[in-house]
Amino acid sequence: MSVIYTRSDSIGRKIVPAPLVTMNKSYDTDGDGTKRGSAYKITLTGTLIPFRGSPSGSYSSLNQAFWTLSGDPPDETYEENNEDFNHILRKQEALRWLFSEDGGVLEWQPSNGQPPIKCYPRVVSINFPEGQWADRGEYTVELEAPWVYINGSVELEDDTSTDLISSSSETWSFEDITGRENKQYRVTHEVSADGKLGYDGAGSLYENKNAWEHAKDFVDTRVSGSINSDTMFAALGASDKIAGSYSNVVNIDQAGGTYGVTEEWLVSDLSTYEERQFTVDYDQSQDEYSVTYQGKIEGVSLDSLAGNVSDLNQAKAAVPNVETARITAISYVGSFIGDKTLPISPDKRTFSLNQQDGTVDFTYIWNTSDSSIVFITDTAQHSYSLDNSLNTLTFSQNIEGKGETSTVRLANAKSAVYSSSEALGLAKTLAGTSLSYNLVSIVKAFDERQGTVRSTWTWTDKDAHSTEISIQTQEAVAVVVTIPIPGRATGPIIQNMGTKNSEIITVTIRSKRNTSQPTLATEPYGESGTIIGDSNTWNPQTGAAERTTRFLKET
Q1: Do 209 and 197 form a contact (C-beta atoms < 8 A)?
Q2: Where in the sequence does UniProt note compositional bias of the Polar residues kind (predicted)?
Q3: How do 117-119 and 544-552 pair as beta strands?
Q4: CATH class of 2-160
Q5: Contacts of 324 (CB under 8 A, 6+ apart)
Q6: What is the C-alpha separation between 56 and 72, in angstroms, rounded?
Q7: Coil, strand or helix: which one is 311?
């Protein structure tokens, strides 16, 4: 029998004397005993003899150490001085080199001309047991191959689809998501396999694939993106539940030859699940409540991928409308607000959409004080100026409109604005003043988006036209007569007549913001004197008017 091993250089190298060949077949099984792969364990047990056989013990290079022609190689010349020991060592070196490549062609053929047997093995080990290594050296080469070829064809004893799988694992887990009103489960499916290298009849990688790629081929046939109905029924007692929000994770270890996939679903009795949270705030100063309803709806669409818009659409369709949200809130917190009632329309609604998670978050807020269509806040301020002895009263009304749309909210807010007389009455009450005031200004601000109106009134204790009055008095003085004397160098003669002239009072009244010429009464300030001068002016463009009257005071 001859044994030949051909490396990647396509040169067949003989091992002479031919080693004994032992071949055993073993099966790779999973934990439950299921066969996944098989392997031929091939053992070459032989003897190296100095100065004879192949490999040679006196080669110049390793690739020339083996006999490559027909027949057997001639014996080498015997040499003394322990050359037999050196030959054994060099033959061991050549044998290690020969089997340093996986996937070569190992061929052995009986001497009687029977068909050769071939395989493309992976080298497991080369062993040289202890010995004197003088006249011989024993060796053992262990190899492993998934297939053995007879007459050029593989021996088909088993299903070759799993021959290159050394082990596999497949598990299902069903996790009950606690606390959810509609029964939901997190289902996980894990499949993994360990692959092996295989070589075809040409000595190339089988199907040009590495070990992890053979593992992938095996795993991919068991990963479908759907939950096995029999498995679901065994775990949950039903096989018609909604399975969606599908995702998978792939794990590859190229060096280790492993490949695995983890699939995950959200399984639900219904197409949506809602989480609810309610908050009740009590305002003691107003004896009113604020009620907040926060919800999260998770959509589950059959066979949908995680992040698919179909999950989000399921969630959007389940968002409660205003009426349903109000009824739900009352059913949960009605006992906390006593005899108060929630208004038909909420103060505020917000929505947040997350396509990746297939969820919608929403919030409704009601105030029990909002039985009306608006919410009003009033503030008043009173100030006094030492500079001009002026009292100023300011009043602000903040109105937040209620309603379904911004247009309705703004319209409701506008309808609730106070009149100036209403504002003055509330301002005087809030500020605690009873003075008489005249309106100076009104400022209004409108926010269409928020549906709010802010109005500010300002009054002072000046009259409406900011009337100013000034009185000038020219006091009575002695009456003297000046008599000029021609030629008198010291000046005229001044003669005191022993009497006084009359006191003159000048009254001026100024008024602003007059749309027509006003009647300005100066008489009350003249102390019933005789009018000796009177003038009126009025500017139609500015509305400014002025009257000046001169009175001769009677004594």
Answers
A1: no
A2: 533-542
A3: unpaired
A4: mainly beta
A5: none
A6: 12
A7: helix
User: Which two three-digit tokens encode residue 455?
Assistant: 């109005």
d(C-alpha 260, C-alpha 197), whole Å: 17
Q: Which pLDDT tens digit goes with each residue over 427-464?
A: 999 999 988 888 889 999 999 988 999 999 999 887 65
The predicted-structure confidence for 164-205, as pLDDT tens digits, reads as follows 888 888 899 988 887 665 578 889 999 999 998 888 766 678
Burial of 540 (0-12, 13-18, 19+ CB in 10 A): exposed
- Give Cα 67 distance to the centre of its chain: 70
3-state secondary structure of 320: coil
Contact 35, 29 (CB under 8 A): yes
Which residue intervals of the chain bear CATH 2.40.30? 2-160
- Give the other-Cβ count within 10 Å of 52's Cβ: 17
Long-range contact pairs involving 414-419 (C-beta distance under 8 Å, separation at least 24): 414/446, 414/453, 415/373, 415/374, 416/372, 416/373, 416/374, 416/376, 416/453, 417/444, 417/453, 417/455, 418/455
Work out the end-to-end distance of the chain between its first and last CA atoms, rounded to an integer number of angstroms.
166
Q: Cβ distance 296 to 273 under 8 Å? A: no
How far is 250 from 252, CA to CA, in rounded Å? 7
**What is the distance between the alpha carbons of residues 221 and 475, in angstroms, rounded to a whole number?**
123
* Edge-to-edge strand list for the sheet holding 184-195: 165-176, 184-195, 258-268, 242-253
The answer to whether 454 touches 444, Cβ cutoff 8 Å, is: yes
270: helix, coil or strand?
coil
CB proximity list for 335: less than 8 A, separation 6 or greater:
none
- The pTM score is 0.51
User: CA-CA distance, 340 to 366, in Å (whole number)?
Assistant: 11
For 54-64, write each residue's pLDDT tens digit.
Answer: 999 888 899 89
Is residue 273 within a helix (H) or strand (E), and if so which, with residue range? strand 272-283
User: Which tokens hold the place of 193?
Assistant: 């396999």
* Count of residues making up the chain: 555
Is residue 461 a contact partner of residue 438, using CB atoms and an 8 Å limit?
A: yes
